[in-house]
Amino acid sequence: MEEKQPSYPLTDVSAHEWAMTLPIGEVVSELIAILGATTVALIGGVTETRAVHQWTLGREPQRQHVLRFTLQLARMIAAADGRHESVRAWFQGSNPWLDDGIPALMLRDNRLEEVQGGLMHAARSFAAR
Prior knowledge:
Blueprint: H1 12-21, H2 24-35, H3 37-44, H4 49-55, H5 64-81, H6 84-92, H7 103-109, H8 112-127
């Protein structure tokens, strides 16, 4: 049975506005629903999903800017076809627009300023397909 997906903003601007205005606990909750707690932990730079769940309850994550940017990308990609499976695959798979880099690992391993432009370009390209 196909899972019912929420409606997503159709532009990168509205996805940005959404991700930047939500309380961080809601950002994390939405990311868990879209990507799963394990991927959110990886991107958030922690080793246990327990920390991710604590973020939804008021504990402040150290990499809030990365999590907000991740939600922006996730909403842009979901707008293309509305399926969480596509979003998960995009974050976890090798991407030719990123020299075959894996977006989740790029977000974990690099400063956001170093990868933000490339990730945004790759997400826009995917969403426009």
